[in-house]
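User: hey, got a sec? need Endonuclease/Exonuclease/phosphatase family folded
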Amino acid sequence: MLIAQWNILDRAPEGWEAKGAVLADALVRRGVDAACLQEVPADGLDALAAAFAERGLTLAAGRLRQGRTDLCAVCWRTGALEPVGGPSGVPGVDCAIQAFDGLAVCSYHGAWGAFRQRERLDEARLLDARLSRCAAKGAVLLCGDFNAMPGEPAIRLLSGLTEAPTFWTEAQDTAVMLGMGGPYPTALPGTSAEAAATARSQGLEPSLVPGRRIDYMFSYGWNHGRPGGWTGNVSVEDAGPSDHALLTARTLDQDA
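Assistant: Yep! Here you go:
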C-alpha cells in the first residue's frame, strides 16, 4: 500500500473547497491508498470532505481539542480499505485513529514549540500504549507532524533508543538503511512560498528559516521485510499549498 503523511496547513485564502480539490488531486495522482492529515480545519471540514469524496476519497476526522481550531484526520481511497467503526482518539493527544480490516492508522499532531519536548514525550508514551494494543489485529501505522527533531526524547522512545519496552520502524530511516536515499527535511524551508508566509506570521525572517525533519511515518514493531513494514520506497516533495512536504511511503503487502 502507498501511505501518505501531510500537514495540510490550516490556511486557505481561496476557500477550503478549492484547496481541498488541490490536496485530493495530489493524493489521487500519486495513487495513495491512505493518508494521515493534520491541521484539518474544523470550520472547513465539510467542504474538505466533499472535495475529497468527489475524487474517491473518504475523510474521517478526530475530535477537536479544546483551544484548537484544527484537528487530525485519516483519509483513504474509497473501496480500497474496509473501515471498522469510526475514528477514535487518545485523551490529551491531538490525533485520529482509524481501524481497518487488518490495519490501524493513526494521524498525530505533536505539541508545538521548542520548549515542549516533555509534552511530546508524554504524548508519544500515550500513543504507544494505546496503539501497541492494536498490533494483535494487524499492522499499525503512526504518521504525523511530531514537531520534534530527530534525537528528541519522543522520537528516541519510538525508535527503541530508550529503556522503554517498545520499538517502531520509521519509513525514512528504513530508506537510509537500505541505501535508497534520505533522510530529507519535511517542514519546508523559508524559500517556499507557504513556509515564508508562516515564518512572517511568527516574526521570522523567511530566508533564515531552514527545512527541518519533524514529520515521521512509523510502523509498529521491528518489521523490516515483514508484511505491513516499510519497503524503503519513500518520497518527500513540495506538492501543494502547505508549509510541509507531502510524504509517501510504501508498505510490504500481505501477499508479497
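Quick note: The chain is about 25% helix and 25% strand. Let me know if you need anything else on Endonuclease/Exonuclease/phosphatase family.
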